[in-house]
Here is the input.
Amino acid sequence: TGMSGTSENSKQMLVFRPATVAGSVTFSTFNTEYSSGNPSAQVAAASGQTPPVIVLGGCGTRGTPVFSSVSPAFDAQVTPSHGRLRMGYKIYDIGGTPADHTVDMNDLGNPNHLWSGYVTLA
Here is the structure.
């Protein structure tokens, strides 16, 4: 629900099931850019956060989206069956040390959409 039904609108969802119940979930301010050109690289500034932390990033285009770079690397990347989106994540579990992640994509046609951020659990 909540979409106009055009081919430019899509929803992305990843489901994470922690081993214990999370008392709270806090979202960072997410970086987003929707461009007809090459989106600027983004930094999900997760360093200094208390684990568990999940760093997230995504990109989309009319063609086949790929990140031109992700540093440090995500644990996994997922592309839905329609192929116009790509999402990635890195989980920093308790005892881990969250790092800032830089994500980028090239100009893959019009439109290009790049986003990144992180979620903390307590």
Remarks:
- The chain has no helices and nine strands.
- The mean pLDDT is 90.
- The radius of gyration is 15 Å.
- The first strand starts at residue 25 and ends at 27.
